[in-house]
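Support request from a user on the community tier.

User writes: "When I paste my structure tokens into the form, the page sometimes reloads and wipes my input. The last time it worked, I copied everything first. Here is what I submitted, just in case something in the input itself triggers the reload:"
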């Protein structure tokens, strides 16, 4: 009996072809080419990966005051003081971009709230920072740096810098999104006036 009730509820939700055609006709036309949104998201992801690496490197530099790399003959190599942190760098990039994606900060469609974006950004940065600290103190850079003691100030500075830099980045994206929508709205208004 429960299965029959479930089946009746499912049938009530199905659309007939006439209603489906009305929904398709009512849908707003696309405002941008199909390739634009994926291209912007990919550029944003690459920018975020670069920003994550730069924030982590800047946090080390601000805390220690030492260069990240030194010239050794014809090549560049990590400074001995930064080498244990350099082992963490790939994980920092993955943690930051993954948590940004997890908290839906790569979504560019639909309505948005700057306050909601700010709260989700704070959660994403805090989660990523906790993962980075856990990786640093549990993994210890593998066998080579197991006796190394990471400076806690580097991770605190990384969190603060990341929050500020990624916040500014997201604000710029939303300002650009708002400008693009306003531009499209003004074009739509102009077309409506021309037709009437």
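"...and here is what came back when it finally went through:"
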């Amino acid at each position: 009996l429960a299965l029959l009730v479930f089946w009746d509820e499912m049938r009530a939700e199905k659309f007939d072809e006439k209603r489906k055609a009305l929904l398709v006709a009512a849908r707003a036309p696309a405002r941008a080419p199909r390739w634009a949104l994926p291209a912007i998201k990919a550029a944003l992801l690459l920018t975020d990966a670069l920003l994550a690496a730069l924030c982590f490197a800047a946090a080390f530099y601000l805390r220690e005051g030492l260069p990240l790399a030194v010239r050794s003959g014809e090549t560049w190599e990590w400074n001995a003081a930064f080498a244990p942190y350099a082992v963490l760098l790939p994980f920092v990039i993955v943690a930051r971009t993954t948590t940004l994606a997890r908290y839906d900060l790569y979504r560019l469609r639909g309505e948005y709230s700057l306050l909601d974006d700010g709260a989700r950004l704070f959660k994403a940065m805090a989660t990523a920072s906790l993962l980075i600290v856990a990786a640093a103190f549990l993994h210890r850079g593998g066998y080579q740096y197991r006796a190394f003691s990471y400076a806690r100030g580097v991770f605190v500075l990384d969190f603060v810098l990341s929050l500020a830099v990624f916040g500014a980045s997201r604000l710029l994206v939303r300002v650009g999104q708002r400008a693009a929508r306003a531009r499209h709205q003004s074009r739509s208004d102009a077309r409506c006036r021309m037709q009437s």
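Agent notes: The reload is a front-end session timeout and is unrelated to the input. The first strand starts at residue 69 and ends at 72. The CA atoms of residues 72 and 78 lie 10 Å apart. Escalated to web team.
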